[in-house]
Amino acid sequence: MEHITLLIGIVIVTALVFDFTNGFHDTANAMATTISTGALRPKTAVAMSAALNLVGAFLSVEVAKTISGGIIDEGAGIRPEVIFAGLVGAIIWNLLTWLAGLPSSSSHALFGGLIGATLVSVGTNGVHGEAVVMKVLIPAVAAPIVAGLASMAATRLTYRLTRNRDEADTAKGYRAGQIASAALVSLAHGTNDAQKTMGVITLALITGGVVAPHADPPMWVIASAGLAIALGTYLGGWRIIRTMGKGITDIQPPQGFAAQTGAAATILASSHLGFALSTTQVCSGSVMGSGLGRKGGVVRWSTAGRMVAAWGLTLPAAGAVAAGAAFLAGQGDWGVAAVAILALGICGAIWAASRRKPIDHTNVNDGPAAEPVGVVTAALRTVSPPPAGQPVRVSDGPEAVDAADTATPAPRAKAATVTR
């Protein structure tokens, strides 16, 4: 292994911590629908996802190159403490959104952190604005829309193809399809998100003069990043799994299969092109598309609205935290130590807050609190009512009551009286 200074070693450890948080933050991307429909047991699902994330980390380095040499200018005087500050901003935002159960983007948290820290330390010359627009912002807007439309079309096609089949006959096929598509999403997640940490570590090694500019990630970097994200995935981000599996829409097996297949195709295509998109946004868009694709199925727009708001805040919020950390870290060794101590304190406080209402594999499928039907939901149900024989739910939450259960039963016809 190359000679590594203490500061670069701290940056590498911090990057692996971020990778770990990325793993449990994004477990829901692959496994939320599979767990919510009962296709796999929760612990089995996260174990399979962890193994495939590790495999996916070794399949490509295109996204890693985008991080290490595309967004941030390697030759603009970027120092390891700048990268350290950027990682701190990303980690804190990841943990805050995890505590709130919001599936925000770990990728954009990382980008925002690196950009914010670089702007404070180096200035605008340290950021490749065109690369940010072309490889981050445009995919951020386009990817969830594309994935959502693909998922909506696939859901409608799936229901149409099986409309005359008995539900029990298709249950096993959908279960197998969900498992296969969830495995594909996990593999795709490894090819995209694990590489982002590889790119950050490689960038730190380049700025420290350990490896040459534009170099591929060394094998030990690939292996360590893959193991970190796999471990985080195995622990399971149960709070976000609950939101994505139960909070956005009520997912049935055909929808889960369609959503995961659409998401996997989008992620794998972006990894091949080197687009460092948000797998969270892609998978969330797919789940929303599957909700709109099922006749009578709707999206809980209040939950979706909070989620989209978190997406919009991720880049600037992580960037603001990282900018403050970069300013403090730039004061010298004591500044770096102060940033580390403050970060540990904040992370500890977030973890302590999460213990007040713990969520794990035993209660992950207990859905969120019921919420009333909104204007959008009511309008969609008017335009696209559920098929005949399917009960209409008068509330969006798990406390929802079927209309068939509350309606007044129709009077029975009186039997004819025959007089002899």
UniProtKB/TrEMBL annotation:
Ordered alphabetically, the record's keywords are: Membrane, Phosphate transport, Transmembrane, Transmembrane helix, Transport
Provide the GO biological process annotations: phosphate ion transmembrane transport
GO-annotated molecular function? phosphate transmembrane transporter activity
- The highest taxon in the source lineage is Bacteria
Q: Does the keyword Phosphoprotein apply?
A: no
Q: Which GO terms describe its cellular component?
A: membrane
**Location of the region described as Disordered in the Swiss-Prot/TrEMBL record:** 382-420
Tell me which stretches of the chain form a coiled coil: none
Where does it reside?
Membrane
The entry's protein name is Phosphate transporter
Q: Which organism is it from?
A: Streptomyces inhibens
